[in-house]
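A reminder before we start the practical. When you read a complex entry, don't treat the lines as separate problems. The point of joint prediction is that each chain is placed relative to the others, so the output describes one connected object in space. Small molecules and nucleic acid strands, if listed, are placed in the same frame. In the example below there are two entries. Take a minute to note the order of the lines before looking further.
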Amino acid sequence: MGSGIYSIGVSALKVAQAGISVTSHNIANANTPGYTRQEILQSAALPQNTGAGFFGQGADVTSVKRNYDEFLSAQVGEAQTRSSNLNTQYALSQQVSNLLGDPNGGLTPALQDFFGSINTVANAPESIAARQTMIGSAQSLSNRLQSLDSRLTEIRNGLNGQITNSTASINSYAKQIAVLNDNIVRAQALSGPNQAPNDLLDQRDQLLTQLSQEIRVSSVKQPDGSMDVFIGNGQSLVIGKQASSLQAVSSPTDQSALEVVYVNDKGVSRIQQSALQGGNLGGYLTFRQSMLDPAQNALGRLAISVADTFNQQYQQGIDLSGALGGAFFSSGAPTATAATSNVGNSVVSATINSTNALSGNDYTLSFDGTNYNLMDATSGTAIQSFTATQLATPQVVIGTGITLQRTAGTVTDVAGDSFLIRPTATGARDFKLAVTDPAKIAAGNPVRANAPLTNLSTAVIAQPTVTSGLPLNVNLQQPITLTFTSASTYTVTGTGAPGGAQTLPAGGAISINGWTTQITGTPAAGDTFTVGTNTNSSTDSTNVLKLAQLQTTNTMMHGTASYQGAYGQLISQVGTQTRELSVTSTAQTSMLAQVTKSQQSVSGVNLDEEAANLLRYQQAYQAAAKAMAIAQSMFDTVLKMGG
Amino acid sequence: MRISTSTFYNESVTSMNQVQSNIAQTTQQLATGRKILSPADDPAGAARASELTQADTANTQFGANRIAATNTLSLADGVLQSVTNLILDVKDVSTAAASSLSAADRKAMAADVQGRMQQLMGLANSQDGTGNYLFSGAQGNTQPFVATVAGVVYQGDDVQHKVQAAASRQIPVTDSGADIFMRIRNGNGTFNAAPAGGNTGDSTVSQGVVTNVASYTGQSYQLTFAVAAGVTTYSITDTTAGAPVALAPPVTNVPYVSGQAISVNGIQFEVKGAPANGDVFNVAPSTNQSIFDTLNKLVATLNTPIPSGSPMANANYRQGLSDAFNALDQGLNSVLGTRATMGARLRELDALNVSGDEMGLQYKSTLSRIQDTDYSKAISELTQQQMVLTAAQKSFSQVSKMSLFDYL
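Here is the predicted structure of the whole assembly.
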């Protein structure tokens, strides 16, 4: 009986020691990320049956358990993947939004300065100083567009680096999880199914949380204790102790962008980029597709529209030397890239037929074996389908402002071959000023009308305007003489003149050789009017005024937006997206905090609680020791009796 | 609920971070004076602001354009004011010359008018501050008026330099010199009655009037006098086509009374004095006669000697003076007409200035409402955020002090 008390005491001491040890372990790991609070499970030892009933035999520690809630941990993983995804997108979109919307650094001031300087030239067309100002502000407009574009390109290049880093992290986590799987399976095999290697499990769970920060994963636990991890459309990242990996490689259609491919023991395979969601990596890919590319395209579209519409009007004017204007700006042309995976080697070229109709979207032209199908590169919406014969000649794609043509190569295209068409991607990058000589600014009207002083009537001829548009009529500046034979009939002489007697229409408008003028008043028989080259017209502001008016003309988006309007739309679009991300990422961050708090309320270490446990086990230890001391004194009493 | 110790620390730090970032945002709003620090703060507002800024800068630019236009117009108007005075002076000369004068006086007057002519050339060739001719149309570098053997010719053009004075209004700031100085109708503006070159009698013709606009459509007539047996009669033929054609009904051998109105096909004029047999007066549609021509003719008239006893010379002198007087009136009308349109443009510019200023104010106040910091609101927000931060810091320091270990 006496030895029973000793052994009971010893068992109690052992349990209390175990308790203090686990409590100390908890205290030690209070700040270890991913650590799960542990506690001992103790139970009464098997009782001994005597004739007088069952006597207890002390206490046993049956297991060390971690306070883990699988459901809550899964929630934390999901919240983590969303939160890091949105935070990444938000941080990146803020860069774009601040860049484009900066009231001083954005495009707005450069655009306004430019048009202000055009007005200065209109006020004093002969002034070289005013013209120099216009050249200068046009140069800053082109610099600003280029620098905005290059900043966006920097962000794009930065993304490539971040995608590479992210895939490296994913690969490293996957490998560590595979190693831990191996260790856990071995440990579990040794300890049996009822004892878990708690700290190893914590480490693996922590790695899974970290992996969730990079990409959305799903995991399945196996009976042997290992955990399989999947990404994307079910690609296995970890199976048992085998880890696969991801790799960042250049996109087959866009060498400047990295995309993520899947590598396992069977080789490299492409995965749909849109399937890689969640986490930082998903954030990078989504940001590039939904904000960076559209912003760069929209900026390019603006640059192309400015260059095109400005040049068109510019070419309808003459400079100080009387020469017709050429191109004032040049801008980037559409790119059409054949995928590196193409079997055929035909070449597709794209040109712009109407800047007014440009959408700013990218398109994919893919061959299905019979037809070439054009679709929106982002949404996949089908746009138009062409046969090879059709594409052999330039084809206007309805509603997009672009024209496509395909030149067959030596190797025939096979189904699946595709081309990426980016109509406006390089627009802003290649936006350049083509005129540097201030005297070359085409401010004047190419033609001028004159009424000789010898005319008998007081009829007046209005200054002609160029109405033919581009290309200009070859005879535009040919001298033309209108000779009236009566108040309403006249003949025309000169190159390009219509023969025979002409009748002056009501309103008096006359159009010849691409210009239109108007005669008001009643001409007398014998009156003549001449129209010809506007020589020596140093103070003519006709064309430069028309250039200035382009500022408020709706030349973009099917005639619904001016330059500034289109830029305002870009700002508002980018701003709205960023604001949305700001709201959702804040919400998701607090969601993560909530879920983490719940999870921590189960698994986290509370130091006050551990202090109480320390006291509890200390007192248990002291009490057990007391029981043993009493057993000893009882034994001593018995011994004294013998003395 | 169990709170894990690290949750307590994490949450405290997170919430303090949040408040601090709010404070940073508010501080930045206060420092920059801008409510919209990034388009994400107010996407619609940012887009609206960018468009309003454009409207506002364009409006400011139009204001600058209007100042340039006002300057040019005022300059031209000043020059034309001098031209007006000059013409009035010459008119006075032509009036004074009508009273009988000595040959020497006429010479002196001719020299005076000649001087005025030079002065007028100078005015018509005025340049603005940057060396551009005011009255040469769009050929600012070309001297518009040049004296040649054939008289003064215009070398500019009829193109007007326009300035964008408002979003939808272009105002011409220059006028063609041809319109002001050259395109002046002689006679009465519709037709011109003048003695033929070889007249020998002492008679002059008035400039006449159009009595029926519908009847006179630009015909030419010839009025021929016949003196037979002391009776003076006249006949009129239509010379529109060159060769004389009899009128229907014919006007032949009508008895002549000096100063009595002679009417034909909607026009009316008077011949005064005593025409000689065979004297001819021609009526033709008005043509352009420049002010320079008018002055030159006046000089020639004044310089022509009047031999005593020559009725013809006397008649020519009086006819010359009266023609000059008429032509100067026409010239004056042309200059005053131009000045009137300039005045109208200047008034319009003033009106546009007023509306432009108002619009500018509106743009600025709207822009300010959209993008400027509301200081009282921002400062009260800042005070509130400071309070929250202080509370968070205090509660953190208090709560973090509470540990059971302190009592063990």
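Discuss with your neighbour: Chain A touches chain B through 83 residues (CB under 8 Å). What might explain this?
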